[in-house]
Amino acid sequence: MGENIETVRLGILGCANIARKVARAIGLASNATVCAIASRYKDKAVKFAAENGFPTSVKVYGSYDQLLEDPGVDAVYIPLPTSLHLRWAVMAATKKKHVLVEKPLALHVTELDRILDACQSNGVQFMDGSMWWHHPRTAHIQHLLSANAIGPIHFIHSTSTLRATPEFLENDIRVKPELDGLGALGDLGWYCIGASLWAKDYQLPTIVTALPGAARNNAGVILSVTASLLWDQPNQTVATIHCSFLSHTSMDLTIGGSEGSLHLKDFIIPYQETSAFFDFTFGAKFVDLHIGWNVRPEEVHVATEHPQEALMVQEFARLVATIRDCGSSPSSKWPEISRKTQVVVDAVKKSLELGCKPVYL
């Protein structure tokens, strides 16, 4: 039976910088539209609407509550500081608005559970704003891993780093304990942990250990951290993650198996919107005298019509529309992925607080 799915109307709570990117993505998505924008200061929302070319039909509100009371809003995108997610995501769910939340989702898993419980009890879809999951390159690699193309996975390495400016390190919300207390671990480590779990088909690791050498600012917010994740089943796998506001930009992901390996240098944000690639190496050995390799990595290119953030919005809107128009239940896939990521984020933080002792999950 065919589905008559109409456009999903999204409201945006807050005018954060990332909201500009997602607003553009909503405009590029075939099944979604921005219908409202809210800020605590209406002038700021008016300015955001103008700068992002919103049509005059988009409603502008001077409070988040007003937007959530609007019956014309199907779903909300929440790019607010992490410390505000619990209040506004729960409020949105109780108003029967579907919820797309920027990562990191919560300061700890007990907060996230309250958000997820509110979404589940109100029958609304939840998704976090990790865009790379929705790129066709990700699905292509997932197919290779599912087909055991590189053999059992033994090693995963991922980095997410950026060289923050002095102004960022002084004033950005991501270094303020009252706003985004997880710092680089929540902002950047979310991707590394998510990628490690994804490579292991979302099986939680057995042991999580923060490594010595983490950097914090004067307020105690994490600026740089390295950690290891260990799985003992079905085969032993170790992952190392490194996230930092103090190093030059990197977004590396390496997955090593017994027969081959995969390497991405831009796994979070591809170098280009329209195409992404990864290196695939299979059956590599050294030639005689160890003066070279018998194979070179194959560069596999994956084209995409739409940027990954537009594909994320399209998938979110598709799920919302099937709930709204067809009576479907919300998908549990995305909440489960988000919760597992949060559990490991919490474990790295706990290990740090214990002086880099292992935390068992």
Automatic annotation (TrEMBL):
Domain GFO/IDH/MocA-like oxidoreductase: residue ranges: 140-262
The cross-references to InterPro entries, in alphabetical order and at most eight, read:
Gfo/Idh/MocA-like_OxRdtase_N, GFO_IDH_MocA-like_dom, NAD(P)-bd_dom_sf
| GO MF entry, a single one | nucleotide binding
Domain annotation Gfo/Idh/MocA-like oxidoreductase N-terminal: ranges: 9-127
Cross-referenced SUPFAM superfamilies:
Glyceraldehyde-3-phosphate dehydrogenase-like, C-terminal domain (SSF55347), NAD(P)-binding Rossmann-fold domains (SSF51735)
Homology family: Belongs to the Gfo/Idh/MocA family.
What is the name listed in the Swiss-Prot or TrEMBL entry for this protein?
A: Gfo/Idh/MocA-like oxidoreductase N-terminal domain-containing protein
Q: Which organism is it from?
A: Clitoria ternatea (Butterfly pea)
